[in-house]
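>> received
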Amino acid sequence: MERLQKVIAQAGIASRRKSEELIKEGRVKVNGKVVTELGLKVSSSDRVEVNGIQIEKEEPVYFLLYKPRGVISSVNDEKGRKVVTDFFQHFKERIFPVGRLDYDTSGLLVLTNDGEFANLLMHPKSEIDKVYVAKVKGIPSKENLRKLEKGIRLEDGKTAPARVKLLSADNKKQSAIVEITIHEGRNRQVRRMFEAIGHDVLKLKRERYAFLTLNGLKTGDARELTPHEVKQLRALGIGTAKKNS
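>> returned
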């Protein structure tokens, strides 16, 4: 017997938190009856429906995608734009991205159908490093880079301390390449951080997520994570969450 929201999450429908919202909204039925209270436990013999569709527990799958620019980090888009799951149409599992990368940002993105795993990695207490390389307009001063390192005030609050490294500067073109490591996942966070110090981001790429890299992949390529990588990510998420609880 397992909690209903966990069963929904494991079926790849949504994260644990989103599954709880679906239950509260009356969009879940167990054996034909609407369930709106959390805590109900179900067995493999119970019929569970979400939005009128019976769920089936899938084997968990885990992928790494080199997301190109101009692709939405979602499973669908009402405007008909290309989404990250379009790269996995030959798989029957209903996968979804862990977090997101902006439309104009390329780089490493993890996808899975394991809602529990995704929720663990995205939890605010799971301080998993995300390494970005940004091409910015102008050349940031040491003082401004230190502001990013210490945390900078944005409209949705001050950012956590970051690690920042100026990789190169082009005085002729008045642009610079900067590596920045953060562990938060706010909307357009890296772009907004650079805008706050007066340097618009011209190009942005996520090069590393925890210990995962894009080595051996070209833009649009994907590969399955190894069981050891999944185990490492899970341990990393649990470890940092415990440390910060």
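>> The mean pLDDT is 92.
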